[in-house]
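Q: Here's a chain of 212 amino acids. Please give me its 3D structure as tokens.
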Amino acid sequence: MNRAWMGLEKAPEGSLKNKIHGLGLKLLARVKPSEIFLKSISKEVTDVEITYPSSLNPRLVRRRLRHIAMRGAASHKGYFYGSVSLLPLTSAFTVLPLPNIPFFWVLFRTYSHWRALQGSEKLLQLVSDCPHAENLDIPNMKESESEIETGDSKHEVHKTRGSKWVLQPSKELEELLHNGDENDGLSKCAISKICKTFNLNKIDIIKFKHTM
């Protein structure tokens, strides 16, 4: 599949293969940012650090992350089995003289949903490693609080003993969100500053905003 994609990418400008490659790029651009995020969580990941606006309740942040993981596992499992069922059907197009784009696309989506499913399950495992943490008031836990210095700012880090997740409130993120707030959400300027400060992909963030 990768060799076929590279062949399409190197095709002469204006050729059929080049147009097919352009169509593939448009299809890839429609992949949800949440799927890209879940695919990035490999089995080698051993812990997770969540940076969030300081005005939010850390328990709410962790519950939201668990919701993303549970919803991702349920949806991508269904999409995975659906894509697998389409593989035999699309493989019949190999008799045509053109590249079997439907088969390669379904194969890619099958692999992508499988990776997202694995990432969802791994994320759920990481944020659910302490079953009693939901009943604890994290900011008041003396044994789980520590302070770290980051530049000129001070961040308070909440981590339950023995857990694999770290909740890190950020006053800087809170200020960027507050200053960039508009009637229709965050301004593009604020999004650019946030992405630059926290090393995020601006295109994915804007795509995620449009899905809200």
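Q: Can you summarize the key feature?
A: Strands lie at 48-53, 145-150, 153-158, 165-170, 181-182, 185-186.
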